Every structure is written in structure tokens, then in C-alpha cells.
Amino acid sequence: DWNMEDVLEEQIKHVRSMVGPDEHVICGLSGGVDSTVAAVLVHKAIGDRLHCLFVDNGLLRYQERERVMSSFRNELHLPVTCIDASENFLGKLKGVKDPERKRKIIGEEFIHVFEGFAPKVGEEVGRNPLFLVQGTLYPDVIESCPPPGSGRNHSHTIKSHHNVGGLPERMNLKLIEPLKLLFKDEVRRLGKFLNVPESFLKRHPFPGPGLAVRVLGDVTEGNALNILREVDEIFIQAIKDAGLYDSIWQAFAVFLPVRTVGVQGDQRTHANAVVLRAITSEDGMTADWYYFDHKFLIDVVSKICNQVRGVNRVCQDITSKPPATVEWE
Ligand code: XMP
């Protein structure tokens, strides 16, 4: 139970001792708590010799890119470049249905984008960056890899967009991990101390592969991603309006590549089904499904069916983990 003032002071000293006076550092921002707090800390230590990258992979949520970029720039004053790589990611994902292949493709694309970013920074500032910031936490350090053959990328092996295995070695970058000794709640306290807005500190976790693990099968088929974005936004807004956001560990919608028959007005429809999932959890390793009251569910389902074209059926996932995982892929 450390004093965050001391942690901050110590880490700033440490970063300054690692990074020479004309050396540069890059950092991938995912929009999540860990990478944001890590970047703000390093920025405090070395100023604009930090160069952050936010990648739009085409798998982000409703208006997410605009929202987080505006916060990074206007509220946190971080030097951040946004690269729109959505066409690359979606192009590579076209026709791919296997969940593990989807994850692998996304991981490789992130590496490509990063490998392009470092030399661009180098050109701009006259020398190549030598360091990479990662928002690794203490549990990531102590927990071992997922069991061999489990085939899943658990949150502690791929924590966020930039935390892609093998990247520092391949690019010859030294790691800066200022949160390495902290637990999640301590990162939140440190973030609060650094004036990181609540909107970052209290955000639900979001997986590195983004909406790709929430559109089952081929993510590029039809209008699936946009439909999912609209449904997800209505669901999350309703949760916030009801004051429930902070009591839920994670909530999101899933798009099913399944069409069912419905009736809207006096029209027969043949449209997609979506799933709502909300859970409580301590660490994501086990989870319980969250119980909404009837009124909340009635309102949110009617909003979704009335406002989102292409959806005529809404299901709720009432499976805990185990036996299910949190994500559907
Ligand atoms: P699962 O689906 O494994 O999810 O029960 C547990 C927690 O981890 C998140 N998750 C991921 N996070 N990269 C990430 O950064 C991933 O590949 C990934 N897969 C799952 C998931 O959202 C949940 O919070």
C-alpha cells in the first residue's frame, strides 16, 4: 500500500536515469488505463522526447478514435500521432473466420504499424528512438503464460495494443515499464494523482483485438462492425445513465452472424441477432454475469430494435466464467 507521491518520484528518477538527454522514447496508447498512466508518467519525466502512437485498426468502438484522441491531446497534453491502419487490418481479416487466426493477424499488423512508426519519429527528431514504454503491471510479471496448447491469448500475455510479444527484441528497443511493481488499483490511484481523467481510470477493459473478438466469424461481412458499434453504444449509454457503469467490470455487445425472422410494424424482417453481455469480476480470470432489472432490459432492448437497422433480436448472455470466457472468441 504505497504512497503514490513516492512511487511517482522514484519512477520519474528511474526513467530519467535510463533515457539520456537527447534520447527518444515511443509508446503505444490503447486508450486503456495502463498505457495512459504509463505515458503520462514518462511524459512528466522526459517531456516531448516521448512519442505516442494510437492505432485505428478499424476494430474500435463507436467514435472511439475521436474521443480518445481528443482526451490525449486536450486533457492529457500527450504528444500523440494517430495512424489510421483500418484498411490494412480489415483487408487482412477479409474472409478469415477462425478466432485464433484473427488474433494472430491483428497482432502482426500492430507490429507492422509500430515498425513503421519508429523510423518516422527518427526522421523527425534526427535520431532513432531507443526505448519503448509498456504498461506492464505486477500481475503480468508474476503470472506465467497461458497453459501450453490452450491457444488463447490471455490478457496477461497480450495486455493491450502495443504489448505485442517479441516487438522490443525485433526492433532493438529497450523497455521502460514504470508500472511494473503496481497492481491495477494502485495504477488507478497513481493516475488520479497524475490528474488522469476518471473517464480513463474507470474505463472497462477492452481487448487488444477489439471488436474482432465480438463479431463472430468474418468481421468484414456486411455491415456487422457498424451494427455492433451502434448496439454497443446504446447498451453502454444505458448502463451509464442508470448509474451502473462503475459496478460492472465489463459490458459489451456481440454480433452474431445469424439472421432470424422478426416482425417490425407490419413488415416481416430477416435480420441479425445480437447479444448483450455484462459481468462482474475481480481480475477477469473468473466472472459472474450481471443481473439487470426488468425495466432496464425492456428499455434497452426496445431502444436497440427501434434505433439499429439490421437487428431484430436481442439476447442476453447469462453464462459465468467458467464455463464460458468473457469474450465470445
Ligand atoms: P476472456 O475472454 O479470456 O477474457 O475470459 C478475460 C479478460 O481479458 C480480455 N481479453 C483480452 N485482452 N488482448 C487483451 O488485451 C486479448 O487478446 C484479450 N482477450 C481477452 C477480456 O476483454 C477480459 O477482460
UniProtKB/TrEMBL annotation:
Keyword Ligase: yes
GO annotations of cellular component type: cytosol
Binding site for ATP: 30-36
GO molecular function annotation: ATP binding; GMP synthase activity
Pathway: Purine metabolism; GMP biosynthesis; GMP from XMP (L-Gln route): step 1/1
EC number(s) reported in the record: 6.3.5.2
Domain GMPS ATP-PPase, residue spans: 2-203
Reaction equation(s) it catalyzes: XMP + L-glutamine + ATP + H2O = GMP + L-glutamate + AMP + diphosphate + 2 H(+)
Record keywords: ATP-binding, Glutamine amidotransferase, GMP biosynthesis, Ligase, Nucleotide-binding, Purine biosynthesis
Enzymatic class: ligase
Domain of life: Eukaryota
Entry function: Catalyzes the conversion of xanthine monophosphate (XMP) to GMP in the presence of glutamine and ATP through an adenyl-XMP intermediate.
Protein name: GMP synthase [glutamine-hydrolyzing]
Native source species: Dendrobium catenatum
Record gene name: trpG
Whole-protein residues included: 214 to 542 of 542
